[in-house]
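Now produce a polypeptide, keeping tokens residue-aligned:
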Amino acid sequence: MSSKWKEEQHPTFINFISSFLRANSLRLNFVSIAPDLIFNCGGVSVAFVFLTSCDSNFSLVFERVQKLKGQFAHLYVVVTVPSEEQNDCFVRCLLKSKLELGKPPFVAAEDLQMGFEKIVKIALACGACKQLDVLSKLTVEREQAVQVMDVFVRVVSSIPGIDSHDAHALNQVIGSIEAIARASKEYIVENTDISSEKADSIVRFFRDPDFYMTSKFGERKQFQNKLL
């Protein structure tokens, strides 16, 4: 909360804010900031301009909002308008201003308490959306990792005598196919549970063209025999 904004409010309202934040497991700090309020929820910062009186000079308010709009990606303006006449007056002033409608969003409230409750709900909603976005990205990354691993296992298990268990062991200890191609027989045997014979097949597969072609020819021969 802005220290300057706090000094402009009645102490009972500040006490209400403090109690309301505690009830929602949020902490209140007084700092020197440009907006009236900033919430950090779910890894996102949400800034607010909170007009608690309709006696404000709206032209100055709109100029301030215009500056803040360029500084904060998530900015909201909450306005307390107790009567319909005050609401209409504010809307007319807003339409005459140079602000683009909806950027930032303006939110009306009938009283101070309702206005602050709306602020907290907006901040928590922004945080929840951010967390959902992060979870969605993590899900996509996990799916991509599974697909990459599936391709890795299929490639490595195409080596004669190597099964999926061996492929996973090589991935955990050595890593990429390029690293496996560079690994020595001794290193593979010492650092995995792969037998000496299988390690020899792996090394020869990547380094001996004759062995590679022979194994492929043998696979084609077996496939042809199955067809016959």
